[in-house]
Amino acid sequence: MDSIDEILSELPLPPYVTAEDVSFAVKAVTVHAAEQWPEGRRCRNDRAPHPCHLHHRGRRVLDQRGLTNRHICALIDEQKAQQP
Ligand SMILES: [Zn+2]
């Protein structure tokens, strides 16, 4: 029995990951960050158990692009710095 989140997170990724996809994925991972709740970690944005499907999908895009955790953290910091 698959949950809807599992189905959504298994959606096929675009064959070519563009810079725009990467930027969108970084945004998704940043917005859908984990938050500590009494019962465990949940998405800060939609309250789904962390990682929610958008966070998971964002990470898959970044993985497909061949980015390491360090690169991803650097991109997230960069995007945070650009926000007003
Ligand atoms: Zn989320």
Architecture overview:
This protein has one domain. The mean pLDDT is 86. The protein has 84 residues and is mostly helical. Helix 2 runs antiparallel to helix 3 (53-64) and helix 2 crosses helix 4. The chain has helices at 4-9, 19-31, 53-64, 69-82, and strands spanning 34-37, 40-43. It is globular. The chain has a two-stranded antiparallel sheet. The structure holds zinc ion (ZN). Zinc ion is lined by residues 32, 43, 45-46, 48, 52, 54-55.
List strands and helices in order, with pairings:
Layout: H1 4-9, H2 19-31, E1 34-37, E2 40-43, H3 53-64, H4 69-82
Antiparallel strand pairs: 1-2
Zinc ion is lined by residues 32, 43, 45-46, 48, 52, 54-55.
Q: Give the radius of gyration.
A: 13 Å
- The average pLDDT is 86
Number of strands: 2
Distance between the termini: 43 Å
Number of helical segments with 4 or more residues: 4
Strand order of the largest sheet: 1-2
Name the ligand types: zinc ion
* Major beta sheet summary: 2 strands, antiparallel
Q: Please provide the ordered H/E string of secondary-structure elements.
A: HHEEHH
SS strand fraction: 5-15%
